[in-house]
Design brief:
By secondary structure, the protein is of the alpha/beta class. It has helices at 15-24, 73-84, 100-110, 122-132, 165-169, 184-196, 220-230, 243-252, 268-277, 296-303; strands at 42-43, 56-59, 66-67, 70-71, 88-93, 119-121, 138-142, 155-158, 173-176, 201-203, 209-212, 215-218, 236-237, 261-265, 281-285, 309-311. The strands form 4 sheets. A 7-stranded parallel beta sheet has the order 1-16-15-14-2-5-6, sandwiched between helices. Strands 8-7-9-10-13 form a 5-stranded parallel beta sheet, covered by helices on one side. β14 (261-265), α9 and β15 (281-285) form a beta-alpha-beta unit. InterPro entries: HAD-like_sf, HAD-SF_hydro_IIA, HAD_sf.
Length: 314
């Protein structure tokens, strides 16, 4: 497993903790459907009964197709089946550590026959935004060197472990790509710098947690919300559940109504909420991912986010 944090300031994330945290930050997420428009969730064994109902299938990655570096064999087979039926298959991921090209290679090596144009990552969405609406000044990029931060169309400079407060004060803003290697000391140094001088914080991965094998890791969204609580900053998020990520998918399938697209994910507050807000139909998978082991009907009732379908896996 990469060096993504599995604990921070006494917090070790569990599915129950992650769900409670998403509920805590609910006001910062899209509104979703009103209670009287929430669908009556239909339980399925898999998405097999839906093969003929939709032309476009959009899959979250972590918890649906893979857990960390481990691909789910059944997911590989399902993707192949959909492609053989002539369906459009897309991956919509909040992964931002890897460049677009590297992420495509990762999933191809796992066994998924995904072309570059069929993968949309939150990082890719951010890069398109920075090309159309450039930011000025020097930006500190929170990510390991292996993440190829030079693909960002910005005057970006790596924020390495141990970067001092005075060095952080010299930046005009920050881009949070990855939590890999992030720790309490570096986070507190950044928070103190932002308290002294509030500046933009752009977050390329809004996830609070990610499933990686037998544990959950803390992701940039968690640290961004922590910064919101610590200092006078309002991060700008790119990725699910926010509309630009879903709009990027819709733009790639012109002529297909959003209601004819199925969004498949493992998290109510990102995949399902965002898909609903974009007008898509949704399927929640539960055997792996951020809700593994949880009482799913109870989670749906507490959150007020009801998927159209629920299944253990695809």
């Amino acid at each position: 497993m990469d060096n993504h944090p599995t604990s921070f300031a006494g917090v070790t994330p569990t599915p129950a903790w992650a769900f409670a945290q998403y509920q805590h930050v609910r006001a910062t997420l899209p509104e979703g459907l009103p209670a009287d428009q929430q669908p009556n969730t239909r339980a399925l064994d898999s998405l097999a009964p839906l093969l003929e109902q939709f032309q476009v299938f959009v899959f979250d990655a972590f918890g649906v197709l893979n857990a960390g570096t481990r691909a789910f064999p059944s997911a590989i087979e399902r993707i192949r089946q959909l492609q053989s039926l002539g369906k459009t298959v897309m991956i919509l991921s909040n992964a931002a550590t890897a460049s677009h090209a590297a992420l495509v290679r990762k999933y191809q090596l796992m066994g998924f026959a995904i072309a570059p144009e069929n993968l949309v990552s939150s990082r890719w969405v951010l890069e398109q935004r920075l090309r159309s609406a450039p930011v000025t000044g020097r930006y500190g990029v929170l990510a390991p060197a292996s993440s190829e931060p030079d693909t960002l169309p910005v005057d970006g400079h790596p924020v390495l472990p141990g970067t001092t407060g005075s060095q952080l004060d010299a930046f005009d803003g920050f881009i949070f790509l990855s939590s890999e290697g992030w720790n309490e000391a570096d986070h507190d140094t950044l928070a103190d710098s932002l308290k002294r001088l509030p500046r933009p914080v752009i977050v390329a991965n809004p996830d609070l947690v990610a499933p990686r094998g037998d544990c959950l890791t803390l992701e940039p969204g968690f640290f961004a919300h922590r910064l919101m609580d610590q200092c006078d900053t309002l991060p700008e998020f790119f990725g699910k559940p926010y509309l630009p990520a879903f709009q990027a998918v819709l733009d790639k399938v012109p002529g297909i109504p959003a209601g004819d697209i199925l969004m498949v994910g493992d998290t109510l507050h990102t995949d399902i909420l965002g898909g609903q807000a974009a007008g898509m139909k949704t399927l929640l998978v539960t055997a792996e991912g951020s809700l593994k082991g949880m009482n799913i009907p109870d989670c749906i009732a507490q959150s007020g986010i009801a998927p159209d379908y629920v299944a253990p896996a695809i």
